[in-house]
Amino acid sequence: MNRRAVLRGLLATGAAVTIPLPLLEIMLNESGTALAQTKTPVSPLYVTWFFGNGTLPGRWKPMRTGSGPAWDLSPQLQPLADLKSYLTVISGLENKLVVSGFEHPSGSAGATTGAPLNGNAVRAPSIDQVVANLISEGAPYRSLEVGLTPATPGGPQDSLHTVSHRGPSSRNNPEFDPRAVFNRLFMGGAPVPEDDGAEQAAKIANVRKSVLDSVLQDGARLQQRLGANDRQRVEQHLEAIRAIERRLETMGPGGGSPPACSSPTAPNVGKDAQSEAPPAVNAAMVELSALALACERTRVLSFMFSLPAAHVYYRHLAQDMNDDFHDTICHGDPGNQSDQPRVEKGVIYTMRCLNEFLTKLKNTPHGSSNLLDNALVYVTSDTAWGKTHTRTEWPVLFAGKAGGRLRGDEHHNFPDDNLSKALLTIAQIMGSTATEIGVDAGRVTSPLAGVQKV
């Protein structure tokens, strides 16, 4: 079967619907390493997973280096304990492009492009776009950018509003509305109805059919061609899409508690309207992101948990968290790099959300293994310690095994080495033959030694 095979159907409105399929055994060669029809090797997948406002470096960095039992997760990485075998922690790096007075925008640019800013614009493409040049040919979307909260950073620089840049003044802005992401992936980009009135709702109720219902006939024909494992995988895949559709139908704007389901309206889950990065919106974006990668609607994804310097409020975590995380908690709370309790709560919540994403990748079959086995997820931020905008001990985590190119379950320490080496390492893991990356103080000519599996 061709990798690009899809299920097709029509909604009652006449709109065409296509449901992409996951990577099935029937699409692969006997070893599961290449596509059966074209002999093309199965491509690894890439994700930038970004969170704003940094960490507590004394609580983020593991105490010991090494592999397997030789090292232990740090307190702030404990939410990822069940995935330790998939983690490669990189410590000691310095973002040499941080500019005093512009720490967040220059830090974000340095961590994702390896280049300084030129006014409000970045000077080089971001690492996700470097990777997209290597692996995105043939995918419907060259890259996909999603975000959990649009909580504003309050600045004009491009690097405060996205971590994905095709080049100078060419931003790929994240989409924060799960409905819009769903429609883009599975409805051919059909717009979300804006009219919430009763008449519009009645019309939608009369014409709207489930996306899945419209392709059941095509799915029945497909099932006759598949082996038992593939049939089960397709059933699980369709049910996952159905679950997202139900969630979008019942969640209210901002991702809070679902309203009564008596009003027949179109999916109305909206982007986070309270600057809270709520768990329900994270869950929806996690499901959508995993489906986009599993279906290879894209092979390159940027997931912005929060923007650089985001004025986000984690008030749903505890009563004492109803303050601006950037201004009041990170900058205003007393303490040192190992002791800011409210910052700790925010970072731990961030890592719990990351764990939900990585666990979903691990539990999603892909080819002969799973998405996390086949992906490289680059986790980083726009600063090291938010209180004083430190540039050393920059948070860097590689999750996944990149199709066997990362070993996982390791902690490497590179004291005072250039953060841009992490970017060059990523590029080379993903297949680049480049021997340098970055501009000015961000330019490097060698990767991080010993990280890539040889």
Description:
With 454 residues, the protein is an alpha/beta fold. It has 11 helices and 16 strands. A hairpin with a 5-residue loop joins strand 1 and strand 2. 50% of the residues are buried. About 9% of the residues have low confidence.
Residues in helix, %: 25-40%
Mean pLDDT: 84
- The termini sit apart by 32 Å
- What would you call the quaternary organization? single chain
Residue windows where pLDDT falls under 50 for at least 5 positions: 189-209, 250-268
Largest sheet: 8 strands, mixed
Strand tally: 16
Trace the largest sheet across and list its strands: 4-16-5-15-14-3-11-8
Radius of gyration: 22 Å
Helix/strand/pairing category = alpha/beta
**Number of alpha- plus pi-helical segments:** 11
Order of helices and strands: EEEHEEHEEHEEEHHHHHEHHEEEEEH
Strand content: 5-15%
Shape: globular
Task: Give keywords.
454 residues, alpha/beta, eight-stranded mixed sheet, 16 strands
Outline of the structure:
This protein has helices spanning 57-60, 103-113, 127-135, 178-186, 198-207, 216-223, 228-250, 279-294, 325-332, 341-362, 420-429; strands at residues 6-10, 16-20, 45-50, 66-67, 87-91, 117-118, 121-122, 144-147, 165-167, 170-171, 300-304, 365-366, 369-370, 375-380, 396-399, 410-413. By secondary structure, the chain is of the alpha/beta class. The model is unreliable at 189-209 and 250-268 (pLDDT under 50).
